[in-house]
Sequence to fold (406 residues):
Amino acid sequence: MKLNRQTDQRIVIAISGGIAAYKTVGVIRELQKRGYRDIETILTANGARFVTPVTLSAITGNIPYADTFEAGRALSHISLVQPCGILAVVPATADIIAKFACGIADDFLSTAYLACTGPVLAAPSMNAEMYRHATTLRNLEQLKKDGVHVLDPDSGYLACGTEGPGRMPDAEIVADVIEHVLHRHIGGPLSGRKVVIASGGTAEPIDPVRTITNRSTGRMGKALATAFSLAGASVEIVTGIGNARYPAYCRQTIAETASEMLNAVIEKATDADIIVMAAAVADYTPATVLREKKKKDENNLHLELKPTTDILKTLGTQYEGKKILVGFAAETSNVEDHAKKKLTEKKADLIVGNLVGVPDSGFGAESSRAVLVQKGEISDSYDKIEKEQLAFCIVEKVVAMLESRQ
Ligand SMILES: Cc1cc2nc3c(=O)[nH]c(=O)nc-3n(C[C@H](O)[C@H](O)[C@H](O)COP(=O)(O)O)c2cc1C
Fold:
């Protein structure tokens, strides 16, 4: 089975007349960056006061839908959304939310909403008082009861100069949620499964200001979170340090040190089906942590380090044959041999061996030079593969392993 983003699904982005409409262009660009090709737009009459049809035509290559009675496009309020992968209303005004809640169908968007056979997402955005108004909240509740996915607005500084709830989340977050709803609706092979992904590097304290850390950015963990989630799994990230932005819909726990990561992973893993240790966990930690900042002097500084608990091995001992356990081996040489050895020693089901310390593979790189080791053998070898693609290959292996265990 080939797993990937379902980029051939039609995404219909509807823009109603809210000030956040300017951000919607960024959402469309973000979806295009992720490979979605069939993007259509709907503009309400007031939406067109904020974003022009020319802008939308230019970025999507398609003329926006705006008028139910447009000659030559009659009945497109039906054909556009039957079928469609998702109808996402970004931003959704108080007005369009009220229309949806009551079934009013007096313009293209409100009519297409009633005709839509795919999932619908609404991203409400407005002045905080408008959002908090009993009518708006009641209408949003009605939408949820009707099966509409509602992306709660952020709280913060609003265009009207006040602060409070009503801010549309950033483009990447909106795009995350659109993808998530789209794939949930399609249903993936890991629906109903839970995966714990440990990601990023750890930082072991020397004194209150200094740590021993590594170059991990969490990029591979982010790619895995995306791939597992789009395959239907519910994803729990345990992240150390690193600058990766994980998909908005994943649960996240921060665990900075190796011992915090051990505790967090063990706790989250109890009800998980799959555990992926993609974090670069420190092998050693200072034997004692200084209470005060160490002052610089002329002498060499000797640090005594003690080994940390091996998280993968702990998990392997506890869960061998019960959960799918995936580990990573980051190596500067002999990747294949180290990965094979690690598979046996840690009692893992799959080891991803990857080369680190070169520009096109390892920490922070977009791509990886990697091998997959299963049952003592190399099952796949990649000279150079994008981390996102590698993540989907790992998910495919996990799906196959789960199927073979049933
Ligand atoms: C400058 C300006 C900004 C507005 N921003 C919002 C907004 O962010 N959210 C909202 O619900 N309404 C906003 N409105 C009011 C809507 O544009 C108005 O309710 C309109 O009828 C919505 O039409 P539509 O839902 O058909 O697009 C704004 C109006 C103006 C003039």
Notes: The two ends are 17 Å apart (CA to CA). Residues 11-185 form a domain with the Rossmann fold fold (CATH 3.40.50.1950).
